[in-house]
Design brief:
Oligomer: homodimer
Number of helices of chain A: 0
Number of strands of chain A: 8
Largest interface: A-B, 38 and 38 residues
Helix content of chain A: under 10%
Largest sheet of chain A: 7 strands, antiparallel
Shape of chain A: globular
Radius of gyration of chain A: 13 Å
Mean pLDDT of chain A: 95
Structural class of chain A: mainly beta
């Protein structure tokens, strides 16, 4: 089945997953030539290893709690907290409590 | 006083404002050469008149409820709902219940 990406002005649900978190996989909500928006599902204890992207990103914690490592410095993000990261910075994410995060990537 | 914009990896609070909504003004959280993130405060009944920007945007309702008009079609956004809008589309926002929304703009 083809993965559905939202079209312009289509309403997308980003409320906390709650009980459904454990059965939900990371998925791309929006993808265009210049923009990608992904909901990353990160159960407690799971690691998204260090990586980098060329463009700027924003990372918003939708539920739970993660540690966001930016160039070796750790930042704790709980529900309702976000940050932006300059392009090219190495970063990693680790679930502290079952979490989902909204990542917006400016593609270059 | 200079307006503070977040630096890379600075943690930003985007939890619902609740009781503080009525005394909070729309403000820019992040501003770089390619990205702008604004928290728009829109009390019930208030209108942000039709306008357009060149780049793509995402609009996420952080609390309350708004009607988002995209090229003449209305979309209702409640807490935890979002959409993206292609660049150049005329849009307007109207508060239905006291609302704040997170708007991410790709600058071109």
């Amino acid at each position: 089945m083809a993965i559905h990406h939202a079209v312009s002005a289509e309403v997308i649900d980003v409320r906390p997953l709650g009980e459904r978190l454990k059965e939900t996989r990371t998925h791309t909500l929006i993808k265009t030539d210049t923009l990608e928006v992904i909901r990353i599902v990160l159960p407690g204890g799971k690691l998204l290893p260090p990586h980098r992207v060329d463009g700027e990103i924003t990372v918003q914690c939708l539920e739970g709690c993660i540690v966001f490592d930016a160039d070796g410095t750790e930042h704790r993000l709980s529900q309702g907290q976000m940050l932006y990261l300059a392009g090219g910075a190495t970063h990693a994410l680790r679930g502290i409590e079952d979490a989902s995060v909204l990542v917006t990537i400016l593609l270059k």
